[in-house]
Model the fold of this input.
Amino acid sequence: MSEADARRAGDEPNGDAPPPRVVALGGGHGLYASLSALRRVTTDVTAVVTVADDGGSSGRLRRELGVLPPGDLRMALAALCGDDEWGHTWSEVIQHRFRSEGELHGHAVGNLLIVALWELLGDSVAGLDWVGQLLGAHGRVLPMSSVPLDIVAEVAGVDPAHPNDITIVRGQVACASTRGRVRSISLIPETPPASTQAVKAVREADWVVFGPGSWFTSVLPHLLVPDLAEALVTTKAQRIVALNLSPQQGETDDFRPETYLEVLAAHAPELSVDVVLADSWVVDDHDQLNQAVKRLGGRLVLAEVGADDGSPRHDPDRLAAAYDDIFQG
Done:
């Protein structure tokens, strides 16, 4: 059995190499992909999840009950479920959405379960930990902030007739679906409190992983929470940026691989990066991307991490192998 296989089985090879402590940042489907891979590589993974969702079931619960939006937190927990029958079953249960003509329509079971525990315990982190125990999650899920956030974006060209005009767009759904080009984002409140557990996890990590995911609405917001941003800049952990496989309509139209790094640097100029992971089939100008990586202080790693069907999604086993190679290197 290889070292990687031993870790994926939950063993420490030779008894002298503890699993890497990994913190993954993001939200939604991008973080789901990253966590699905990371739990195959290490038994010590913590997800730090954005809390700015204002749409769908999460938005309704947020507005009605004043809670953190639970949807991205639920998806992270589902990603950390194991591949056994217990994990598969509970992953499907918490992801299940009701279909009806009434008020329950569209609500995810996991969202309701998480919010119920929050109300009973009065502690968002404790509630997530309890859900994680129930699911047998292979890791921990934490909110990036202790309060719900709103994303505000400066968007150019909302009106195609005036491509250079700047419009202020508020809300994660509105920012993600805008017709214009997102130039920058900020948060409301401007200086939100970070989750103390998330800050601690970042400071104690061996590796911190940014992305893949919705760049402006899932990845960059972590760098706008002051205490969390300070931890991300000053941590002794090595930092990985996992690039997306394709631009996202609205948020990152026409983005090239190096554009993600340029936007990251603009929002967090003090942040350095150790490794940038990109799919070898996506990158058409290696030199240009490599120069962008070097400007952030890192090295470029190219690997085949996309799904075989050609869709813009990461294959968990391939992504796991790429992460494992990086951790071992």
